[in-house]
Amino acid sequence: LHARYVLNLLHETRKHLKQLPNISHVSTCYSEEVTVCGDLHGQLDDLFLIFYKNGLPSPSKSYVFNGDFVDRGKQSLEILIVLFTFLLIYPKEVHLNRGNHEDHMVNLRYGFCAGLIAVSKGVHGKKILKMIQNVF
């Protein structure tokens, strides 16, 4: 995606998240299923496998993602794009919990910042990184 679209997605995600309380309550009844995921760490293939086995998020398929979306893997930005897009499309069915890897200092240490700057090139990468940190 062009940086303009990524920044727009991040802006809309931030706007949505600011409206939410610090603690989310997710409840289901016996007839509903919720998929709980954690520690994707930039492994886009793992996310695709989860969606393949459990189905895509939808009004009938809820997901809770328990943080650690980025760092270590090579496709952290892609993970964020997919998760943030589903969050905006299905805000009642997709829940994102912040993990310790959604922290700037951890991102510096484990490679997300450097990887994003290298992939995004120059000014756009810095703008995107700043906005992601703002969303986190």
TrEMBL record:
PROSITE patterns: SER_THR_PHOSPHATASE (PS00125). It comes from the Eukaryota. GO terms for molecular function: Hsp90 protein binding; metal ion binding; protein serine/threonine phosphatase activity. The keyword Kinase does not apply. It is an enzyme of class 3 (hydrolase). GO terms for biological process: negative regulation of MAPK cascade. It catalyses: O-phospho-L-threonyl-[protein] + H2O = L-threonyl-[protein] + phosphate. Its EC number is 3.1.3.16. Keywords: Hydrolase, Manganese, Metal-binding. Residues 97-102 form the Serine/threonine specific protein phosphatases domain. Its cofactor is Mn(2+). InterPro entries: Calcineurin-like_PHP, Metallo-depent_PP-like, PPP_phosphatase, Ser/Thr-sp_prot-phosphatase. Pfam families: Metallophos. The keyword Metal-binding applies. SUPFAM superfamilies: Metallo-dependent phosphatases. Belongs to the PPP phosphatase family. This is Serine/threonine-protein phosphatase. It comes from Scopus umbretta.
